[in-house]
Write a structure and sequence with these properties.
15 helices, 3 domains, binds nicotinamide-adenine-dinucleotide, Rossmann fold, 22% strand, Dihydrodipicolinate Reductase, domain 2
Length: 411
């Protein structure tokens, strides 16, 4: 039986870790403490789950008193590094939510601390457990397209899902590192995992023309906005998500002043809503990637062009499609119509990943569990892209990861 302490008692912390630990993994895991800068949210975990779970606002005190085997980090992205490193220094292993962190200096601190202390950090990339992506991974690992020469990759977030990033702390670069870190870390990790390769060089462009101060009719937040009756993006914090958001955020606002229904057209928003970039990989593949956070529909489209043909995959309108074109142009469709989505968060990927985290695993043939190297390579593309946009140049990942992985300097 391992003991776990969690820092960051928000949505992900409560419903993806604390609740499952006490309800589904009682035989394997014990939650010994929860910490948050917001004492109300920290306390809420025990109250909501009706368990005696000690709540802290002082992380060091929690570590001293509870001496957990493992610390789970589910704070805002920009705070991951301080807790990962403190936990490692205190002799704990760490499970951290993606993104591992948000910039190159904090990434270096994590890599250095992990090496020096010898304790282990696992980065939770739940997309690696989604059936659709597992199928793509298996096809590529079986060599369906042979050597991969190029990848064309597009993510579309609609104006419900995409907009929600602009209501929350994510919309401030200092918190999330931008969508290129916060959101695209999932996408870049999948690309690295699919290709079984590591990125070398990135060139990127980004703009924001849909959200931010692009219209006159705007307020500070939806709750007291004079335009709430006419705005198509009005968001009712009292009723959304069955009252969960009211309980977790609105009822805790008085402690830290954070509100979760910020106007999408606020002038404090400083992240891009459209990005486009190119990546060169170590084994020679090139990738074009774009992210759109204001699409009329949700979709992921990825195409692999290889020695044996072309694999086209997309999941528009909830229909998963995989087509393979051989060198003669013959098309074979891999039938996904009978694949049932598994129950549980994120298409069943969260429960599958939690089983691995809390019950352990002996075999991992598809390499679904990710370490700090995978964490660094996925945010590495985002960090390089952020630098590329800011400095208007192509950026090598070896500029900030080369000291840890000297082989990167050869490319
Ligand atoms: N893998 C996934 O699919 C997935 C999905 C959602 C969120 N996440 C990740 O989980 C993390 C939490 O996201 P969320 O949606 O739960 O956000 P949230 O805003 O609901 O929760 C974040 C919590 O962290 C706390 N916090 C912020 N700064 C802190 C600090 N310095 N010290 C201690 N606590 C601090 C906040 O008070 C809040 O309770 C993020 O890193 C996010 O990227 C991952």
């Amino acid at each position: 039986m391992k003991t776990y302490a969690l820092v960051g008692a928000g949505y992900r912390g409560l419903w993806s870790y604390c609740e499952p630990i006490v309800q589904d993994y009682e035989d394997a895991a014990r939650l010994v403490g929860v910490c948050d800068i917001n004492w109300k949210r920290a306390r809420l975990v025990g109250e909501y789950l009706r368990r005696d779970i000690p709540a802290y606002t002082d992380f060091d005190q929690m570590l001293r008193e509870k001496k957990p085997d493992v610390v789970i980090v589910t704070t805002r992205d920009c705070a991951h590094e301080q807790y990962i490193c403190k936990a490692l220094e205190a002799g704990c292993d760490v499970i951290t939510e993606k993104p591992m962190t948000t910039d190159d200096a904090m990434c270096a601190h994590i890599l250095e601390t992990e090496r020096r202390t010898g304790h282990r950090v696992t980065v939770t990339f739940n997309c690696r457990f989604m059936d659709f992506y597992v199928k793509i991974k298996e096809l590529l690992a079986d060599g369906i397209v042979g050597d991969i020469f190029s990848v064309h990759y597009e993510w579309l977030l609609d104006t419900s899902h995409g907009a929600d990033y602009f209501r929350r702390w994510h919309s401030i670069r200092a918190n999330s590192g931008s969508l290129l870190i916060h959101k695209s870390t999932h996408h870049f990790d999948l690309a690295n995992w699919f290709l079984d390769d590591e990125p070398v060089k990135v060139n990127a462009f980004g703009t924001r023309r849909f959200y931010g101060p692009v219209r006159k009719e705007r307020g500070e937040r939806c709750r007291d906005c004079p335009y709430r009756r006419s705005c198509e993006f009005y968001f009712d914090i009292d009723t959304e998500d069955g009252g969960r958001l009211k309980m977790l955020y609105k009822d805790c606002e008085d402690v830290d002043g954070y509100f979760r229904d910020r106007c999408l057209f606020s002038d404090v928003i400083d992240i891009e809503d459209s990005v486009s970039l190119n990546v060169r990989y170590a084994k020679g593949a090139v990738m074009s990637y774009s992210l759109t956070a204001h699409s009329p529909y949700e979709c992921m489209k990825i195409v692999f062009n290889g020695a044996r043909g072309r694999l086209e995959c997309d999941n528009a309108f909830g229909v998963e499609t995989i087509r393979f074109y051989d060198r003669d142009g013959q098309c074979a469709t891999i039938d996904r119509s009978r694949v049932r989505q598994r129950p549980g968060g994120h298409g069943g990927s969260d429960p599958a990943m939690r089983d691995r985290l809390f019950r352990g695993w002996t075999e991992d043939p598809l390499h679904q569990m990710a370490d700090t190297r995978a964490g660094a390579m996925s945010i590495g593309i985002g960090i390089a892209a952020n630098k590329s946009v800011k400095e208007d140049r192509a950026v090598y990942l070896s500029e900030f990861l080369g000291d840890f992985y000297p082989e990167m300097k050869q490319h």
